[in-house]
Q: What sequence folds into this?
């Protein structure tokens, strides 16, 4: 019998670029002026600049160029949907191959992390204190940027480890845990204190936060995977938990022989990938709409197909079949597309009498996350359930700011968008706390 | 199929490509192999005075990821025993009667030493002799090489000694380390040389090692100037070649020229031919890629000649020389402007930044509605390829302001995207020479220049 070693089958998919590959690729970059890749990057990293620094052998300068626009540059190098962002906008894309911007970014940021080189220093102390709730990419970025500006920052994180989904929610195939933790360590070395296992409303009171800090940044992300509301739901495995186990304790992950993953977003693809790589004979993703409406990026869909994952579109689960406490199948109904729903996408409607059973022994769901609970806790104004913020990322409570997935009422949630929120919010907080600072215009 | 064969002052070869006197022609085995690959001739690595070599010998200049844009060397002439070289030359020539075997020589500056070496070379059956007056390092410290080539009188004297003895064609190889190659060329011709060749290597220091702060290449911690060659020297070589081609004395002599200096491809070769070279010598490109490059040198040249209707090499030689002119004879009224083809343009904006920062500020960025927009105008919240690509402005030349400098054309990474288009200037043709003969004050007085410009409607912004 074939022995599957999780640390091998789940290890980072792309190898690092060799020095030679990196330099050759860097030289291929045209060094566009006012480059479209830079505009397409939500954090507007000066991409031609960092790439030319690779070409000249100035790797510390290259990493600094990346990190000054995006403190989570090592994560983004790995998890960004570059096909939709920088690489998708590369002027060489039309007739040639776009520059491998993501992998070059990884090359430069790995260089400084592997050598323990810090490219930033804490700022001159301002005497102001800022609390950050949630140590994900938005929170860490905001904290790091504020520390660079001299503020005293404390980050409260409910989990045991910092860096949110980068640590817990992105499969190792795309980002090893160490990369996410190294970013948190870098932020700590800027003087930021990260207090873990502190959860607002549980062992951390809002009064305590309000009374002890001059400003607060909420970067709490989203909630649990919502319920499907179907019989047998208690036998469904939570997708984010599935991924978390695959990262933190891969040997303990129970993977079925025939696995059905409900959902068609990037997390669903990740769950299906883990299942397949850890030995599931058959992995099927079921989605109630069609390929056109799925939220996974096209390149993720292609990747999943190459992994041998099967897809059942226009399929809605109606019941998890269980026998003797074990899952035996997923009863589904076929769907057809009807009139557009609230999201503007055609609403799937069940086809009468079309029920069928997908035999399986494990069902995983990755159908998005619930809205942030903190909005209710603090009685914040919301927009579609997300925390509502103004241009300066300020919530309806003065001095309380928010960013990251918890404010993503528009567009799709991503690490890089969270980083930009954290960076811009830090600047707004700084302007508020030090009105004389006259912060230079945002990039 | 064009006929690539040449007859260079009586030296015949099936194609114009000769290996230059250098490491590739260091031994009989190498030259045999080169001929098997199809090289038309070889100039044997210089033989003559006894020498010892050092290591490291070669430095190189790499740029933009391209290796060996140029090489420099502190290698001397052949360090193999003279008798071994002579024996191998004889052997090669016997095996390859149809190829050109030329022997480069350099000895101390006495008539006896030159007489001795010339007789020995002729005894091998070689087709010709090349006098190395060019080597810029080492040998020059001993009064040979460029120490001779830089002084026309020495050049003439030594060539005279050689011509008094030689029965086979003699080519004088010129050094580029002079203000003009014309005086030494004329000196060689005055002494009766049968051919000229140029350029030898250029004095150079190729670089410094930024870790050790040593000169590259480092010879036990020391370094010094070496001979510079390779693709980067081609424009210098072309200029020197053309300066011979337009010199009335050289032209009058009818003596053929062997061109070299950075020839790497058939395109380079064609350019040397067009500026008056009859044979072509190659070294650095071979040192980079080996003898096999002869295949495309001949194949590509052949295809180009066929396409252009040239039947023989002599049809090509010197075809562009009549276009070599001086600034004073250029038409001041000729007007060209840059035009960007929006269908080919990839909007890298390299033309825009080059023009705006360093030339004449006449390229605008124009958005889809026709408005001129500044660069970097997007909002911090912009994200994703669709917005970046769909809102990207198009660089457009303001032709009225374009001075036709051609910088944008040169920086554009897309072939055929930015073309220089000739437009009527509305002014009669006139050269600087004609203008300043008719109105000398225009060349000495800014007020007079201003009046002239106003009369002609020449605006400078």
A:
């Amino acid at each position: 019998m074939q022995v599957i070693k999780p640390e091998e089958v789940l290890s980072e998919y792309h190898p690092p670029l060799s020095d030679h590959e990196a330099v050759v690729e860097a030289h291929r970059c045209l060094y566009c002026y006012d480059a479209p890749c830079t505009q397409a990057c939500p954090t507007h990293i000066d991409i031609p600049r960092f790439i030319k620094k690779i070409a000249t052998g100035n790797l510390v300068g290259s990493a600094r160029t990346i990190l000054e626009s995006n403190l989570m540059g090592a994560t983004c190098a790995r998890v960004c949907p570059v096909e939709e962002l920088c690489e998708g906008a590369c002027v060489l894309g039309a007739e040639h191959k776009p520059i491998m911007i993501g992998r070059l970014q990884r090359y430069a940021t790995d260089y400084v992390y592997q050598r323990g080189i810090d490219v930033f220093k804490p700022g001159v102390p301002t005497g102001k204190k800022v609390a950050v709730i949630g140590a994900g990419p938005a929170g860490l970025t905001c904290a790091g940027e504020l520390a660079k500006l001299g503020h005293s920052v404390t980050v409260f994180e409910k989990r045991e480890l910092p860096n949110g989904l980068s640590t817990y929610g992105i499969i190792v195939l795309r980002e090893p845990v160490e990369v996410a933790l190294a970013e948190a360590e870098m932020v700590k070395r800027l003087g930021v204190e990260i207090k873990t296992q502190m959860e607002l409303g549980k062992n951390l009171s809002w009064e305590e936060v309000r009374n002890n800090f001059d400003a607060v940044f909420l970067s709490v992300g989203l909630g649990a995977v919502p319920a499907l509301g179907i019989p047998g739901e208690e036998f469904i495995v939570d997708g984010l938990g599935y991924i978390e186990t695959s990262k933190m304790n891969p040997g303990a992950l129970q993977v079925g022989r025939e696995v059905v993953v409900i959902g068609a977003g990037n997390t669903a693809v990740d769950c299906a990938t883990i299942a397949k790589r850890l030995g599931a004979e058959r992995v099927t993703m079921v989605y109630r709409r069609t390929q056109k409406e799925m939220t996974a990026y096209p390149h993720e869909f292609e990747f999943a197909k190459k992994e041998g994952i099967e897809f059942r579109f226009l399929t809605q689960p109606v019941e998890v079949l269980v026998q003797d406490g074990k899952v035996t199948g997923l009863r589904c109904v076929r769907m057809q597309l009807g009139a557009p729903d609230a999201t503007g996408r055609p609403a799937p409607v069940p086809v009468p009498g079309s029920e069928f059973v997908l035999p399986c022994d494990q069902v995983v769901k990755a159908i998005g996350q619930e809205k942030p609970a903190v909005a209710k806790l603090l009685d914040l104004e919301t927009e579609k359930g997300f925390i509502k913020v103004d241009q300066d990322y300020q919530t309806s409570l003065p001095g309380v700011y928010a960013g990251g997935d918890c404010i993503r009422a528009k567009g799709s949630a991503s690490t890089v968008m969270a980083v930009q929120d954290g960076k811009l919010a830090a600047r707004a907080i700084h302007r508020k706390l030090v009105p004389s600072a006259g912060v230079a215009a945002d990039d | 199929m064009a006929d690539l064969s040449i007859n260079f002052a009586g030296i015949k070869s099936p194609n114009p490509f000769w290996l230059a006197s250098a490491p590739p022609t260091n031994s009989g085995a190498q030259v045999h192999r080169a001929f098997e690959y199809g090289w038309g001739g070889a100039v044997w690595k210089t033989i003559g005075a006894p020498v010892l070599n050092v290591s490291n010998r070669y430095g190189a200049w790499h740029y933009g990821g391209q290796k060996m844009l140029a090489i420099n060397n502190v290698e001397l002439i052949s360090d193999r025993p003279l008798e071994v070289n002579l024996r191998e030359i004889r052997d090669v020539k016997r095996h390859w009667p149809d190829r050109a075997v030329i022997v480069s020589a350099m000895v101390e500056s006495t008539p006896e030493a030159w007489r001795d070496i010339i007789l020995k070379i002729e005894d091998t059956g070689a087709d010709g002799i090349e006098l190395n007056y060019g080597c810029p390092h080492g040998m020059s410290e001993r009064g040979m090489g460029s120490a001779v080539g830089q002084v026309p009188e020495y050049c003439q004297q030594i060539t005279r000694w050689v011509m008094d003895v030689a029965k086979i064609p003699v080519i004088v190889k010129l050094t580029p380390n002079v203000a003009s190659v014309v005086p030494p060329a004329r000196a060689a011709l005055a002494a009766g040389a049968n051919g000229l060749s140029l350029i030898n290597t250029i004095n150079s220091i190729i670089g410094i090692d930024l870790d050790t702060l040593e000169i590259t290449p480092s010879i036990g911690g020391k370094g010094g100037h070496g001979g510079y060659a390779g693709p980067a020297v081609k424009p210098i070589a072309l200029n020197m070649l053309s300066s011979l081609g337009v010199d009335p004395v050289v032209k009058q002599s009818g003596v053929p020229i062997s061109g070299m200096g950075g020839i790497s491809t058939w395109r380079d070769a064609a350019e040397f031919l067009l500026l008056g070279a009859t044979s072509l010598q190659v070294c650095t490109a071979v040192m980079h890629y080996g003898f096999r490059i002869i295949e495309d040198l001949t194949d590509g040249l052949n295809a180009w000649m066929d396409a252009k209707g040239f039947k023989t090499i002599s049809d090509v030689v010197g075809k562009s020389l009549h276009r070599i002119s001086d600034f004073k004879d250029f038409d001041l009224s000729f007007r060209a402007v840059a035009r960007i083809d929006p269908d080919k343009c990839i909007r890298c904006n390299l033309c825009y930044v080059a023009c705006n920062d360093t030339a004449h500020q006449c390229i605008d960025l124009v958005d889809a509605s026709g408005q001129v927009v500044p660069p970097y105008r997007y909002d911090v919240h912009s994200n994703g390829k669709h917005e970046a690509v769909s809102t990207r402005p198009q660089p457009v030349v303001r032709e009225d302001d374009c001075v036709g400098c051609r910088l944008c054309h040169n920086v554009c990474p897309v072939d055929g995207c930015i073309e220089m288009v000739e437009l009527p200037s509305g002014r009669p043709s006139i050269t600087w020479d004609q203008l300043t003969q008719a109105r000398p004050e225009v060349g000495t007085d800014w007020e007079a220049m201003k009046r002239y410009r106003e009369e002609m409607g020449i605006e400078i912004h």
